[in-house]
Design brief:
290 residues, flat
Length: 290
């Protein structure tokens, strides 16, 4: 290759990379602008839902303070605590179910294994809201709505956990089965192999499962609103924030709504940034065909 062609090729590559970076920068700005807007509005001292200017004339942290001190109409601390309890409980239970299901489907061979996997994949294609009304009346029959809605929501969120096995199973498939066989020859049980050999090697997929399990109930609205049935004592944060934007109170509570949105986004953002490397490894490692 002549120097002229080499320089031409390098120039073309630099041009293509520059165009890609410009496009990615524009996309990043578009994605980050709503969050930036929420932060700016949460620090606005003037009341009202809409203003003719972008930058606040008065800057204040009162919106954050009042979220936790002024609970006369909207009890944000209770909503936050309820959502945190639900998310942690769902994360622990769902992660355990997904891991043991995925390990069983990856390592064990039994007669109905393939049909069971196909059935779970097909059932997972149906949207959850199709059965929402029936599930609600069943929970109401057992007294698991409103004051017991927290338990009801946890049961609903973890009920179909095993159907999320596919990514986790794909990761377990990448771990050599010779490790299991060597441990079994030395007298280790299935339980010992799973706990002491497989799980230490599966840190990325465990973190991926934990993150996805935590995020799902954290921002869930549809079923949580049905379970609370209009009583704000049993709201989660998603349902509670929606009620902050009612016509009667939106003018006074819009800036607090923005502050609450920022606070709600912090745990997910912090977890994702902290565990991003393992999250990506879990997704890519679990995407292989088992």
């Amino acid at each position: 290759m002549t120097k002229k062609k080499f320089r031409s090729k390098k120039a073309a590559e630099r041009g293509a990379n520059t165009a890609i970076y410009i496009i990615l920068t524009i996309i990043s700005i578009v994605w980050l602008f709503p969050f930036f807007y929420l932060v700016i509005q949460s620090l606005r001292g003037e009341s009202g839902a809409a203003t003719l200017y972008f930058w606040p004339k008065q800057w204040t942290f009162d919106n954050y303070i009042k979220l936790f001190t002024d609970t006369s109409i909207y009890n944000f601390p209770r909503w936050y605590g309820t959502t945190l309890i639900i998310s942690i409980a769902v994360t622990v239970i769902q992660t355990a179910i997904v891991l043991v299901t995925s390990y069983a489907l990856s390592r064990l061979r039994f007669k109905m294994r393939k049909p069971l996997m196909n059935l779970m994949l097909v059932l997972g294609m149906f949207p959850g809201f199709m059965s929402m009304t029936a599930i609600y009346f069943l929970l109401k029959l057992f007294g698991l709505t409103q004051e017991m809605g927290l338990v009801g929501l946890i049961l609903v969120y973890v009920a179909s956990s095993c159907m999320g096995y596919y990514i986790c199973k794909g990761f377990f498939d990448t771990i050599p089965k010779s490790l299991d066989e060597a441990a079994r020859i030395d007298g280790a049980s299935r339980h010992t192999v799973f706990i002491k050999i497989i799980l230490p090697l599966a840190k990325p997929i465990i973190i991926y499962t934990v993150l996805t399990a935590f995020m799902a109930p954290w921002g869930e609205y549809m079923f949580a609103s049905l379970m609370a049935f209009g009583d704000q004592s049993y709201f989660n944060v998603a349902v509670g924030l929606k009620y902050m934007l009612q016509r009667e109170t939106i003018s006074e509570y819009f800036t607090r709504f923005c502050a609450a949105s920022v606070i709600i986004s912090l745990p997910i953002t912090a977890l994702f940034m902290w565990l991003q490397k393992y999250y990506v490894q879990g997704v890519t490692g679990g995407s292989v065909k088992g």
